[in-house]
Amino acid sequence: MKKLILAIACLINLTTGDYWTDREKLIQLDRASNIGSTLNLTEKETIADAFILNLKKQELQVGFNDPKKFPSALHFFKSRPIIETSPIFNIITRLPKGSSLHSHDLALTSQEYLYNQTFRENLYACLTDDTLLLHFFNPNNISTSCEWTLLKDLRENRLDFEEFLKSKMSIVRDDPVKAYPTINEVWKGFQQTFRTVVGLITYKPVFEGFFYQALRELRDDNVKYAEIRGYLPHVYDLDGRLYDEEEVVGIYENVTRRFKEDFTDFVGAKFIYAPNRRVTNNTMEAEVQIYKKIRSAYADFVVGFDLVGQEDKGWPLGDYIPQLLEIRSAGGHFYFHAGETNWFGFASDEDLFDAVLLNATRLGHAYALLKHPALAEAVKSRGIAVEVCPISNQVLKLVDDLRNHPAAVMIADGYPVVVAPDDPGFWGARGLSYDWYVAFMGMTSKGTGLRFLKQLALNSITYSSLNATEMAGALKQWKVDWDDFVDGLVRNEYFGYNEVLKVV
Ligand SMILES: *[C@@H]1O[C@H](CO)[C@@H](O)[C@H](O)[C@H]1NC(C)=O
Ligand SMILES: *[C@@H]1O[C@H](CO)[C@@H](O)[C@H](O)[C@H]1NC(C)=O
Ligand SMILES: *[C@@H]1O[C@H](CO)[C@@H](O)[C@H](O)[C@H]1NC(C)=O
Ligand SMILES: *[C@@H]1O[C@H](CO)[C@@H](O)[C@H](O)[C@H]1NC(C)=O
Ligand SMILES: *[C@@H]1O[C@H](CO)[C@@H](O)[C@H](O)[C@H]1NC(C)=O
Ligand SMILES: *[C@@H]1O[C@H](CO)[C@@H](O)[C@H](O)[C@H]1NC(C)=O
Ligand SMILES: *[C@@H]1O[C@H](CO)[C@@H](O)[C@H](O)[C@H]1NC(C)=O
Ligand SMILES: [Zn+2]
């Protein structure tokens, strides 16, 4: 109501009697709520902004003339090669993006890196009902749980094996529409991919290298901090030694420390415990105990809790209120996946209410949020950040054309949005830049430039779980990187698009 009165008051003020003046005023008023619109740019930033806008408009025009060439409107499996030739994408990869606040343990690295790990010694494979399982064994002590065969032998005996293996390690397909007619098929493929890679990744030497590589790929993409969700599957050695949840968190922390020693500009990583939502009450009790244990052992590193899995298939947050309240009492924050659905009024949709009532610090996806105006207003005014993962929502079949993504409205209306990759390795992405690119090109206005990108980077730090001291350090590092980036852009160091700069 307050908002409405304000809007009417502004409209009355707008009426100058001159149509075109009024029109311009109305447009300015409308733009004033966009993410980033309140930022004041420095002189150099203003030049960089014009440079970016010029490129953006050219690229939009190409898509406007021939929509088949507009990446944000195409399926990511088709658009990726086009994106990779884009000057805007090139700029975004170099832009200091702050942090990555939503991604999952087994899908953190590029597929190429993970595929390379399948050439290690002692890797065995077993095919059961369409799912390929992978596991390392000591050749003298191979489990009888399945008909395990050395992967090396399969490689030698099957001509199309590499293609087959790659198809099991990701959901990328030549024809995504045919491969995944509905959301249920794509989620099935997605979950099978987790089952395939888990035995490969949780072998201790791979696990440590994998996480190190995940941080490296983020840093290569100019991201300096990450909050990783993980469900803490046991890690194993060749001799059969298992590392429990607490030890696995210890491995994450150790790798993070080692990475920070190797790259002193890297701010760090923290961990959100995110087990499967589809469990019995008893299992959830056990999760509470695990959370308490890892939280008390690693209070600076374990920052909170979430539940994962296909939300439409259950179970909703409301089924676990007693357990969640107990978790809350152990400290940390909630970062719930909520409203990752198109089913209006279903339990998955109403998860949004529980997430807010439970005082979630950020919401994963909140794809359905805008269908609930009062709740949406509360999320906005309380500064509960929405973790938007556009490519994930597209490949997991909530939306086809990303211009229709609901976060386009959140961006226009100044919601506390961060953009993150979810499971980049599973769909052929890497780092944050692909998601930032489609958000910038498909989900903001033609006239939206550097301010949006800068605010998005700032949001990714200010909505993180870093404490005040850590956050100050992260912002300081970001500022150094940002000024470097703007300098480089203004000097036209990165690309040599001289013809473009001339127009500016
Ligand atoms: C931008 O500049 C205006 C006018 O000088 C000022 O009122 C506003 O607070 C500034 N915004 C920020 C985010 O610093
Ligand atoms: C994967 O292995 C190939 C061949 O050895 C190498 O060229 C490539 O850089 C590796 N990729 C990654 C991401 O490690
Ligand atoms: C064989 O592996 C199992 C678990 O995989 C382990 O418990 C057992 O100790 C191993 N036996 C030997 C002789 O290494
Ligand atoms: C982490 O590193 C510390 C110090 O180097 C070491 O004592 C500890 O065992 C490591 N933890 C794990 C789980 O590897
Ligand atoms: C857990 O128990 C509560 C009752 O305490 C029930 O409402 C809920 O459905 C149960 N959850 C599951 C996942 O079985
Ligand atoms: C959420 O925050 C409100 C206001 O601070 C508080 O009254 C309520 O107990 C909190 N709920 C939970 C589940 O922590
Ligand atoms: C912030 O976190 C760091 C660990 O990264 C810790 O050493 C420090 O005590 C924390 N500061 C506050 C004010 O909690
Ligand atoms: Zn997620």
UniProtKB/TrEMBL annotation:
Gene Ontology cellular component list: extracellular space
Primary localization class, coarse: secreted
Gene Ontology biological process terms from the UniProt entry: adenosine catabolic process; inosine biosynthetic process
GO terms assigned for molecular function: adenosine deaminase activity; metal ion binding
Reaction it catalyzes: adenosine + H2O + H(+) = inosine + NH4(+)
Pfam families xrefs: A_deaminase, A_deaminase_N
UniProt EC number: 3.5.4.4
Ranges of residues in domain Adenosine/AMP deaminase N-terminal: 14-92
Keywords, sorted A to Z: Hydrolase, Metal-binding, Secreted, Signal
Cofactor(s) demanded: Zn(2+)
Localization per Swiss-Prot or TrEMBL: Secreted
Record family assignment: Belongs to the metallo-dependent hydrolases superfamily. Adenosine and AMP deaminases family. ADGF subfamily.
Record protein name field: Adenosine deaminase
Source taxonomy: Eukaryota, Metazoa, Ecdysozoa, Arthropoda, Hexapoda
